[in-house]
Amino acid sequence: MEDIICAISTPVGRGAISVVRMSGQGCLQKAEEFFSSKNLDYNTIVPRMMYLGYFDFKDGSREHCLMVYFRAPKSYTGEDIIEFHVHGGTVLCQKVLDSLISSGVRLAQAGEFSKRAFENGKISLDQAENIIGEINAQSESELKASLALSEGKLSGQIKELQNSLTESIAQIEATLDYPEEDFEKSAKEKIFSDLDKIDKKIEEFIETSQSARYISKGINIAIVGSPNVGKSSLLNALVGQERAIVTEIEGTTRDVLSESVSYKGVNLNFIDTAGIRDSQDKVEKIGIEKSKKSLQNADVVLFVLDGSRTLTEEDKEIKKLLVNANNVLTIVNKSDKKRVLEAIDDEIEISAQNGENIELIKDKIYSKVISEEIDYNKIIVINERQIAILKNCKKILNELFDSREQSMDIIAMLIKNLWNELGKITGQCENEQIIDLIFSKFCLGK
To answer: For position 182, which CATH number holds?
Structure first.
């Protein structure tokens, strides 16, 4: 029998409500030791009903709170669950938790509630991982993708692929059991026809997940240019607030400054860099070196020029630095002044001062990196571990196709490897360590 476990399931700190949760056989009887209500008879308790009453501490004090009972198997973990909804406060909810622990209830490990839900068949392994994604989502796009996956769509399709592989293994066993029967050739044709369908499905998962890094991490954009072209003014205009210091003095920005803004549900991470030029100032030189390094990590580079002056030697040197940079957009600033700079191919003329064409820059950045609108109705795998598994599956499939003429024993071994690799997503695999690692990433109480 599983222990009764308990934990605080809401963030620790001041708030209107804190939730202390118990799960396991016997937790209802444990609740009876502490909670009482004039409307509650524990013999006829109604599951999912909130009861208003008192949590009685052993020192004689009591907390006016709510209690709700979830009867197995209709609960998050699949076990009996009790939740106490007490007034928010670090000391109070800790006192409730300590009372339960002192009565023999065990403090839950990180993610143990969700692990029990997985073990009891309430959620699949990929659903558990995507619950983590929901909790940790930092952009609308990341939340949308995690919400779609938390419904179990991915595991459902992966299990279908595993079932197909199981049938292939059964076919191979039949050819090995009855070697006198001449149906190895036809069996191979059927097996590799099925493998081809699996290969296409995995390729589809990988292809639709190409934007996953941008969904979860955002698009990194470096703003570069010579001093005083308006880089900091542009950053302020892009994020809609005064984040960078703007003065007429060259070299004001001496370090890398980052700020993010959401566009079409994806975070645009703007990096305002120090103006690149020859400088004898020790601090400014450090900032300039950081500026150059930021170019290497940027998904998009905004090369800012001053339209009210001709191209300077510093501008020309920066242009040389950008030869191997990713997705460079030339931004000609200060359209509110008289234009002196010659026209440049594919330039975007703006005024950081009055906001002209600022939204156009965001749209150009988005379309440079994400070729089409993200379709959240499709399965978009954003979890890096799951993406790595799918790529490993693709390698095993390539090995299988190269082994078409090999013996059935070798083909069966590779198919079993593929089945196990897919099982690292659904939880139907032979590696308990993977399962433990995933649930350890949950917060305490989840």
So the answer is: 1.20.120.430
